[in-house]
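On clarity, I found the account of how folds are encoded harder to follow than it need be. Since the whole study asks how a given chain folds, the encoding of that fold should be made plain. The format is easy to grasp once an entry is in front of the reader. For illustration, here is how one protein appears when written out as sequence plus structure tokens.
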Amino acid sequence: MTKSKIDAENIEKRHGSIQFFSRANSISFRNFFVFNHCMQDSEPPHVSAISGVIDLTSWNFEQHGPVALQGDWIFRWKEFIKNPKIDSEKNRIMPVPKAWTRIQEPNGKNYPGTGIATYFLKVILPENLSSNNLAILAETSETAYEVWIDDNKIGAQGVPGETADTSTPEWNVKILPFQINKKEFQIRIPLSNFYHARGGLTARLILGNEDQIIRLRERRMTMDVFLLGFLVAMALYHFTLYFLRKKDAALWYFGTICFVFCFREISTGQNLIQVIVPGISYNVHMRIVYLSFYLLTPITAAFLRALFPEELKKKSTMELFLSPLSFL
């Protein structure tokens, strides 16, 4: 067989593989994004906290749905306190959601990753509130904190403490229900971070009627379960094709990409891993989150090299394979 004929067959084989992945996966991803669009929450009017106060008097929970408690909160660095009016000159403004490591202290330096602080937000409710049964959806934040409504603790993520030995971080999503019989209340959040590079309230707190928050959580869980099932199916499908056509390594690598994405999906978003493995160690959870992210680069490089063996060098691909080992 002549060299030109061999090259032609290789090009045809590679083109066939590319067409196969393009057609098979574009249909699946198209269906996923159509489903995702149908499941997305409608965009509510923009409301933001200013100087530690969020005014919801013009907000209609029945029409607009839950509201994100985002904006500028009152922030007391290195203190667990109950009342921000005490020694109020120490009060600072901190945007939420945002890591405090991205904000500068009065001395011009960024806040360090580790430390403790207390967040405060005054909430003014609308007059036409249909129910006194409210709830907060606490999205994933890689720290430890408690949530207090006035003088009542309604929930926590882990156990905040003044030292690493007295604090326990948690990486989870929770619904925190509470009852309120007045139009104004204060949210107080004592928070500590000694286990993650980023400190602070890095995820949103979403306020709404309790049934709205439950439905929101269920919709998001449904979306995550659907995506997980899609990724598992794609992984098994490509692994099966590989065992039928073992000469096509691209099938194996693409199946592995989908498999790694499964771990990424269950450990982020709505944190299905906390449902599958309740009480999973924070350190194990964190390693799954980051390792599943960094593994995608070398596996994707190997997948592309299987499709284009002549164009991509083996040495550079091997370097990408070894790079995630530094995160173990």
User: Anything to note?
Assistant: The CA atoms of residues 31 and 37 lie 10 Å apart. The mean pLDDT is 86.
